[in-house]
Structure formats: structure tokens, C-alpha cells
Amino acid sequence: MNLLVTILLVVAGLVALLLLLALFLKRSYHVAREVVIGAPRRQVFDFLKLLENQERFNKWAKTDADRRKEFRGTDGTVGFVYAWSGNKSAGEGEKEITAIVEGERIETELRFVKPMRVTAYAHMALESLAEEQTKVVLSNGGKLPFPLNGLLPLFERNFARDMDESLATLKSLLEEQYRQQRPATCLVSE
User: Which InterPro entries does the entry link to (predicted)?
Assistant: First the structure.
């Protein structure tokens, strides 16, 4: 019996410590990751502005293959909404295109409903490094309510890892697409 009480007191103490720590931690987060893709900026932008294409590279869009999806509006335009509802991992929410700077930037608002109500903001910025080389910067930010903000350090680390994985998939996908579309060059020897 004493062992059970001791275990309960230790667990309660840890929970209290985490809650106390969360009172003093930041509540907002911002994570940005980037990748350089061997394809022209126009091709990369035209692919990214269509939210339905995220099914092909976004790690979070792949968490539940059987989730229910709903699309409202015209994809690739301001006001388009991609909504989903799935298992515990996928949750429920929607993503809306809020701004587009043609060829340069796509901004979205994410409204999560389950497992908790949270609003986040994401944007993808593109920059030409060369004719066939595009830098993509994916940024995501928002606020986590108390006491969830106590998990921000872990959240940011895992979120960055997932963003890196999504960007690596995007790079592979778009570079392969570009290789297949590009006319073959022939070397002529004399």
C-alpha cells in the first residue's frame, strides 16, 4: 500500500512540476525548414499551390489513408479549403489558402478541430537560385494553449523532423517529374 501511495505521489509531483513549468514557457512556436529542388521555380510553384498535391508529399496528409476528405472552392486560389476527418493520428481540421503571391509564396491557415481546437499558419516561399534550381522554405507557426505549451520543445523537434521528411519527398517527386519532362540532350561527336 505504501508503494502505491509513493508512486501516486511521484506521478502527481511530476504532473504538478510540468504544469508549473508550462506556466513559464512560451506559448507560440515557429518552425521553418528549407530544401533546394532541381526544377524551375514555375514548375515547383504550380505544384505547391494545389493543396490536393499535398497528398503526394506531406507526411501529415499520409497519416490515415482512409480519412474523409472534402474540397471547397477552386484549388490553387485564395479561399480554397481542404478539410479532413480521420483516425486519432490524422484528427480533424481544415486548411485554407489565405494568400498567394504568384510564383513566390503561398499562405494557408490550418484550423484543427480534433484532437484539440488550435489554429496555425503555414506558408511556402520560393526563390530561384538558378534556372533549374528552386529553394522552398516551409514555415509553420501558431500557439499552443496552456498546459500543452509545456510540450513545445518536444513538439518543435518532432515537427521539424516531419517537415524535413515532407520536403525530402517533395524534392524527390518534383525532380523526378522534371527529369521526365525535360527534353533529352544529345551529345554529337565529330
Answer: START-like_dom_sf (IPR023393)
